[in-house]
Specification:
103 residues, little secondary structure, 1 helix, single chain, two-stranded antiparallel ribbon, 2 strands
Length: 103
């Protein structure tokens, strides 16, 4: 990674209601999927870094972090709601990982 993540939290598995999907920044193709009980499984964790500008690509604050994650292998078969590729995807259609800056 371009930075050394610190204070990494435990990974948290949560279920969100499909009516709340607009709050999340997953790919728009997932919005069209029908799911059982209107619940979607997601995993989240938090970390901090000393120098956030390291991810700024001149266009987006987290641009380099996103490109660094593109096509990185990931583990599937963990009760995910949707059929996912076994690689991270950051495209608008199939985004299965995203980052938020929490201040």
């Amino acid at each position: 990674m371009r930075s050394q993540p610190e204070n990494i939290s435990e990974v948290e598995h949560i279920e969100i209601d499909t009516s709340d999907m607009e709050e999340y920044k997953f790919g728009y193709l997932y919005e069209k999927e029908t799911v059982k009980d209107n619940k979607i499984s997601v995993w989240k964790f938090m970390f901090s870094i000393d120098h956030p500008d390291v991810f700024h690509n001149g266009i987006e604050e987290l641009g380099y972090l996103l490109t660094d994650c593109e096509q990185v292998p990931m583990i599937t078969g963990l009760d995910e709601t949707f059929k996912l590729s076994n690689q991270m995807n950051v495209t608008a259609e199939m985004k299965n990982i995203y980052f938020e800056i929490v201040k």
